[in-house]
Structure of Acetylornithine deacetylase:
Amino acid sequence: MEFDMRAFAADCCRHRSTAGEEAPAAAFVAERLADLGFETHAWDADPALLADHPSFPDDLDATAVEGRRSVAGVLELGGASDAGNGDGAGGAVGEDDDDPVPTLVLNGHLDVVPAEPSEWSSDPFEPVWRDAEGRLIDDAAGGDGVGETLTARGAADMKSGLAACVGAAVDVRAGVADGSIDLPPSGLRLVVEAVAGEEDGGYGAATAALATPYPFERDAAIVAEPTELRPVVACEGSLMARLEIDGRSAHAATRWRGEDVLPRFEAIREAFMELEAERGESVDHPLYERFPVPWPVVCGRVEAGSWASTVPATLGAEFRIGVAPGETVSEVEAAFRDRLERVAADDPWLRERPPRFERFSVQFEPAEIAVDEPVVEAVRAGLVATGLPDVEPRGATYGADSRHFVAAGIPAVLFGPGTIDEAHYPDETIAWGQVVRAREAIAAAAERFANDAAA
């Protein structure tokens, strides 16, 4: 069966797979993978398992996790067991534990962030194709994709990357069958994953890392996040923490009788920004020198007071604080807690009523692999093999599901089409030519990975 990557990406984008709504998209992907001859697997996020995971809160809401379906398709390719098998398929999954097959995971996430229709020029979940001149075209009318774009929620982050993974796996199978791809006797096992809950911290990937859904080991992974066709080997972590301050209310006409929380919050926020600047100078990492603020601190939410004519006596604020590769969330939390205690020590009111600073939501531990890991070198070789420039690996200031692979001892590199600048934005768009090139590069990387593993 032929794989129509354009139709797959467009149909996948039509699924409104926001948090908790991934199941229909997962069913669609599983059906398409089965039609293409993949052996399919499925698993749901496990709230009991995730509650013991350091990334997730101990009181994880089971209702927000249950039913978050992830799916995968497996191809066994090449190898000695392939003799006489013209379609390029190998033996049964995991049938030969004495001669393990190198296994490469091609990973993408199904979930997308919500889209506000009023901010879009078209329905966010009705894909729009345009040619190189910006004219609307039918989604089935494309040629080589040069100059064309796809606009939809999830087009860049990251359903087009998932489509490239499926296409790459299909291409490797076809290349083995027609002899254009030469795999070693050990062959290659390709796993295409479509996971749920990445935007919520990685429900699907974390569950699979802790309790594998496969009867075989995984050797490495390519996570097809939008990296502009550049390998990313380091992902920043983040501490999510909630600050609470208590003051004393008073009538606005006699505000001097109250204890206003707002100046105290500003003093704390200023101290945190000073620490951000200090950490930017003291916490060095060669892959992050290009960023003006390598370990950002953002207060994304503040709520204070109860009435315009009353001195605000309570304040709650939520911070996202960057964690460098090589650090831990706990270490960074301790540094900011210490800075908070210094501010409180200088304020008589806060000395008696210390601010509270506690984690909430999901924590992202940083993740990093060596630039000379075989999967990284395979990706770089794939770029060259398909006529793209070899580029040095980079670091990213965001987190991704790669950290769950790395934590499980599975080297994972981010590499995919599109730019992170389009992620979560209105009129999210991807240049389709990059998707085509990603498919080619990932296929070439898979071939290189198999041969390097056998060397």
